[in-house]
Each structure stands twice: as C-alpha cells, then as structure tokens.
Amino acid sequence: MAAPAPPLDDCLRLLRGERDEQKLAGLLVAANACRAGDAGAVRKVYDAVGPRFLRRLLNTGLGKVEGGKEEEREAYLRLALTVLAGLARVPEVAADEGVVSTVPLVAEVVSKSADPAIIEECFELLSLIAIASEDGSYKFCEAGVIDMIFLQISSLPDGSKCIELAINLMRLLVHKLKFDNMSVENLQGMTSMVTCLARLFAVLHTAVKFDALHMLTILLSQKESPLHDLLRSMPASIWESNIRVGITAILQNRVVSSEKLHALLLAECMMSILGEDWLSEDCKIQDTQNALPVDKFVLLVLESARIEVAVLLNELAYLKYESSKTSQTDEAVCQKQRNLAILFSLIERIIKMISNASSGEGAPSQTIRESTIMQAITGLNETISLVLDFLQDAKDHGQRKGDDLLAAARIVGSYLAEAPYACKEKIRNLLEFIFSIEGQDESSPFYSICFMLPMLSQITMEADGCITLASFGGYKAVIDCLVKMTEQDGIDNGSMFLACDTIINFMSNRKGVNIPVDSCFIRLLKALVTWAGTTNASSVTMTASCLCAMLIDLTSEEFLLSCSDFDTKTLGSLSELIVRSLQQDVPDDDEEQFNQKQIIVSGYRRWADRFPHVKNVVEQHVSV
Known about the structure:
Oligomer: single chain
Radius of gyration: 34 Å
Protein name: Neurochondrin family protein
InterPro entries: ARM-type_fold, Neurochondrin
Pfam family, one: Neurochondrin
C-alpha cells in the first residue's frame, strides 16, 4: 500500500525554505498537490515557491545557469514544466504576472527540445496561459516568441499529440489577439505568426494545411488592420510566395468547395493588402518548391473563381425562386450570398489587374503575357454574361432588393468600366432594372447607379448611349444620384466627376431628347453650387460651372426665381460660381478644363441677357 502524501503544510514549509534542496523537495510533493486540482492548495503552493525560483529552474534546465550535469538539467526542466502546468490549471494563477513571464522561456524549450513529452507539456502550459488572461495572450507577441514556438511545427510527426496541441494554441491566439490597440512591437510578433502559417500552408500536405489556410484568412481578412500596414512595409519575402504555393495546391487538387472558397478568399486578401498586381507578379521562391508560372497561376485563380461563381449563381437562383421557403433555406441563401460577395470582390480585383497589365500600368515585376490577358478577358466576358442572366432572373421574378443583387450590379459596373460596350444587348435590356436595384439597407436606389457611372460616362460620348439612357429617363436617376452625393458626409469627388461627365455628355449628344426644367433640374443646379462651395479645387469649379452653364441655357432667370425651391441666394451663389470659373487660369496641358471653359464662355454669351443678375455680377469682375 502506497504511503499517504505528506500534509500540505509540510510541503509549503519546504517550499518556503532558504535552501534550493528544500524547495526542490517541496516541488516534488507540490506536483501531486497541483494534479489534485484543489484551487486553494494550488494558490498556496504558488505563493510559497514564487515565480522567481520557477524561472531559475527553467533557466537551469535550458543550460543557462552554470553547473549541473545534463541529466540533472533535464530533470529540473521536467519538474519546472510539470509544476507550472499544474499551477496554470487554476486560471487565477495562470494569469499571474509571474507565470505569464515564463512564456518566452517555455517557447525556448519548445524550440530546443526533441522530447515529445516535454513539447506536449509546453504546449499545454502555453495554452493555459493564453486562455487565462489578455496579458498572457499578448506575451506571445514579444520578439522571437512565436518563431520559437511554431517554426518547428512542420517537423513534428503528422497526427501526433504535439501537432494537435500546437495548432490548438495557434488557433487560440489567432481568435483571441486583437490588432486595433496593439503596439508596433506586438504587431511585429503577429507578422511572425503570418510568416509561420504561410510556411505551413505551403509545405504541409496534411489537415494542418487547411488549419493554416483558415487562420491566415482570419488574420488577413480583417478590414483596415494595422497588421496589413506592417505586412506591406516588409521587404518582398518568402511568405508571399508560400501563400501563392499553398493557394495553388488547394485549387489544383480535389478538395471540397468550402476549402477552395477559403483559398480564393485568401487570394482576395493578398490583393487587398499588397495591391491587385500581386496576382501577376513574378515572385521568385528561394526554396526547393516549384511554383506555378505566373500566367498559369493567374488563370488558375480566375477559372476557379469563375466556376464557383457559376455554381453559386445557379444555387442562389434555385433557392430564391424555386425551392420551398424555410428558415434553413434563408440561412443557406445568406451563406451563399456571403460567398458570392467574396468571389465578386476577387474577380473585381482581377479585372483591375488585367486593366493595369493591358494599359502598361502594372508593377514592373509583372510578366503576364498578352495571350493570357486575352484568355482572361474571354473568361470574364462569360462570367459577366452569367451575372447578367442572374439579374434577368431577378427582374423576371420582380426582385430588386438584396445585397446579392447589388453585388452583381457592382461587378457588372466594374467590368463595364473597362469594357463599356461588352454584353451590349443585355445591358441595354437590363440597365433600367439595374438602376432600380437597392441594397438590403437602402431605402431607394443609389449605389447601383453609382456602380454604372464609369460605363455611362463613356457610352454617353456617343448618341446611341444617350438614346439608351433617355429611353427610360435614366438621366434623371443619374441626377438624383448626383444630388444624393452632395447630401452625404464627405463627398466622393471621383463619383461626382463621373456623374457630371455623364450628364454633360448626355446634354451635348442627346440629339432632340427634351430635358424638362422641373424639380429634378432645380435640385441639380443647387447640388452643383453646393459641391463647388466645398472646395477651391479648379477641377471641381470648372466641372460644376460647365454643367451649370449648360443647364441654365435651357431656361431663364425669371423662370428659375418663380420656382418655390430656387431663391435669390442660390442665384447669387450660382453667379459667384460662374465668375470663379471665368477667372480660372487653365493650364496649357489641361485639355479637359480648356474645353470646359470654352463651353462656359460660349454658353454665357448665349444666355447672359436672360440672366440679368448673373450678367451684372460677371461684368463687375471679368470681361467676357
């Protein structure tokens, strides 16, 4: 029969002893007390031994303290880890500053030990510390800690307890650490985690590869993260290439659709952080792995995204319009809509990358061939045609509200911005419907029209485009959109210029289309005056004044002042805007502003007599 354990008081007395021999004897007994799980007893043991002695024991075990034989050092190491792991099972103790301070030492043990039992104990201890407190989890971000812990993972036996514990610890840290308030030093630690995960994602061909993929998407998909700034500032490194290798492996092999979606999301994250040209940059890998050539990688990502989009559009259409409605259906629809949004975002970035490559504006390291560009454009045409079929389906079923429809309008707009005459017949038939699409949280159409502005500003340069826009009164929707922009906090000048260009083109090329001087017309004039009053930028002054000059050529001062929503104050502001534009010095190389000034001057000469107040103000300041 085993001898009864000495009373706790005897153990504590030994731990409080002055000689190391007493403390060691006390720890041997304390290990049993800690395993028993009595929180009160554990706290007393910890208070008695103190963190300083435990750290010294770890340092001795690591060979950082002179003296002692190798077998003794390993015994000290095992004892320190066993006791610490037992103490850390009580969250209050695991959160104590003394226990948290051992994290770098335990990480060093992981990096140096070849004993699976010791490594397992280390990972269990580190997990308990990470769970117990915020300070505990942030301790892992100190310089070198993450590298010491996780760089060894790829060499651990597949399916071992060590691998399981290591991945659980990394997953815990990924979910628990928040970047928003991190110091630069801690963020450096997080870049090490990204680097470690990228390597695992590239080199492993086990379930850990998918764990690494999921954690990378969590770390890199956070919007406006300070971690992204640090990653962007890092010199071109192997981690980017490792992620490319991992994505290639996932997309080239037979894996479930959800994992391919994760890989495509990761590609979208990389393009978001490092720029669209990341996809087509020729990154040399200084390793034994053979990376896929750039052209094949671009087409692999695009074709994979196109396949997933085609499947999702088909499934969404069935769930929304043909299947019986249940709560499960609603949940499935929401998940598919989220996945579709990710894929659309990726394809939009690829469109931008193809545009850069075609125009020669891509990064110097871009090596994508013209044949690849043409192949990509053909694929994009097919996908946009499918998206338009999806919108046609929604139109046929009387559906015009939903974030999936808005996302579809956005990707169509992104593509048409680069290829304004693509899918011409389908666009002509669907443009009015697209203008009516509302996001889930919108009370009236706005963003769907904004998405079409780059295309509209191009097609209205020709009469056919103006006829299409006039056929359903689309120019009024553009005017409403422009007015709404001026009512928002922080006017988006880029969209404002596109809207103005569209209306200027429309008025110049409308060929007999009558524009009634109604409330929509008055609101546009007031919006343009408001916009011009927010900045001294010459481009804003000239664009707003040019459009105003064209609009008031359709009416008279007397008529405008008879309108209830147009007053002398607005007329005064309009007069000041015209004066500012006429006084504007136009640079010799700015053809657009030169043309705008020509329109303003010629317009003024035609309508000045109909606007005596404006004429009086202009003549006081400038000679026309």
